[in-house]
Design brief:
Elements (H helix, E strand, L loop, with lengths): L1 E5 L4 H5 L7 H9 L3 E5 H4 L6 H18 L2 E7 L6 H4 L1 H18 L3 E4 L13 H20 L4 E5 L8 H11 L4 E6 L10 H8 L3 E6 L1 E5 L11 E2 L5 E5 L8 H10 L5 E4 L7 H18 L1
Parallel strand pairs: 1-2, 1-11, 2-3, 3-4, 4-5, 5-6, 6-7, 7-11
Antiparallel strand pairs: 8-10, 9-10
Length: 292
């Protein structure tokens, strides 16, 4: 079992100037993590060209190696319906270029989004779009296999978030180099019970995000700054792993019972100081895993 830190978890500290994307790697090592996860807009947001991104990837990899860490994964955005001006083939090519970034990092996995779906008059069901989406995902997975990178999608982005939707997509893609990233907290964004959702996708899970949220009903008072609304209008605010309403320990039990023994990466997006949140969250996560 490896415990990884998503560099996105340090984003609030990075914006305050307390850390940089590069120094976050050493901080993760100091906190006791085994690996780090790179994120496109955090680590490469200021790079204008693919050449610059590849150079940055080499620098990040060298820093991780100096700290005795590895990159467990690389996360990038994607929208195979609306991205690249609505040109699906151009978006596929753009995502393939991100596969090259993952390979340069030495990351054995890359997570990409699927789509935000169509809005307004073009709106249609997720299931009706699966054939087009599955073909795009399959093309990327096939290319990534040649680079030694497994591709994954995460339950993320509201439209491609429910456990039954990502399960159907996984089944339709039917590619040995494509799997699911199970984010135990993100199911709440679609108003889904995390434990039941994790139980559904556990057989297809090859990577895990440990995340926690504080949940409030729509009928409660709006909690204000730091909170956002779920698809059904309830309120969520990110918090330290183990201090919110996500049944983290139960989700870990379900994953372990299914045979999962891969990487668990903390993705923190709360208002608490990032370094303290990651330190406390890692201690909780390690304790829960040992107890289930």
């Amino acid at each position: 079992m490896l415990f990884s830190a998503s560099i996105y978890s340090f984003f609030s500290a990075i914006r305050k100037g307390e850390l940089t994307p590069l120094s976050s790697i050493a901080k993760a090592k100091e906190l006791g993590f085994d690996a780090v996860e790179a994120v496109d807009f955090v680590n490469f947001g200021d790079c204008a060209t693919q050449e610059e991104r590849l150079q940055r990837a080499a620098e990040l990899k060298a820093e991780a190696e100096k700290c005795g860490l590895v990159f467990s994964s690389y996360a990038t955005g994607a929208d195979f319906l609306n991205g690249s001006g609505g040109d699906t083939q151009a978006e596929i090519q753009r995502v393939k270029e991100n596969v090259d970034i993952a390979a340069a990092l030495g990351a054995p996995r890359m997570r990409h989004d699927i789509t935000q779906g169509y809005k307004g008059e073009k709106a249609c069901s997720y299931e009706s779009l699966i054939p087009v989406l599955a073909q795009a995902v399959r093309e990327v997975a096939d290319y990534a296999a040649s680079k030694g990178v497994m591709t994954m999608t995460e339950n993320h982005g509201f439209f491609s978030q429910d456990s039954d939707r990502v399960e159907k997509l996984y089944t339709a893609v039917n590619h040995p180099n494509f799997a699911l990233l199970c984010d135990m907290g993100n199911f709440m964004c679609a108003d889904e019970n995390p434990a039941l959702a994790v139980a559904r996708v556990a057989p297809y899970t090859r990577y895990v995000h440990a995340k926690d949220f504080i949940w409030r009903s729509y009928n409660d008072a709006d909690p204000g700054e730091g909170a956002f609304q779920t698809r059904g209008g309830n309120y969520l605010r990110g918090t330290i792993v183990g201090q919110g309403n996500v049944p983290v320990k139960q989700c870990l039990h379900i994953l372990k019972a299914s045979g999962y023994d891969g990487v668990i990466a903390i993705e923190f997006e709360g208002m608490e100081p990032a370094v303290d949140a990651m330190r406390i969250g890692l201690a909780n996560l390690k304790r829960y895993w040992s107890e289930v």
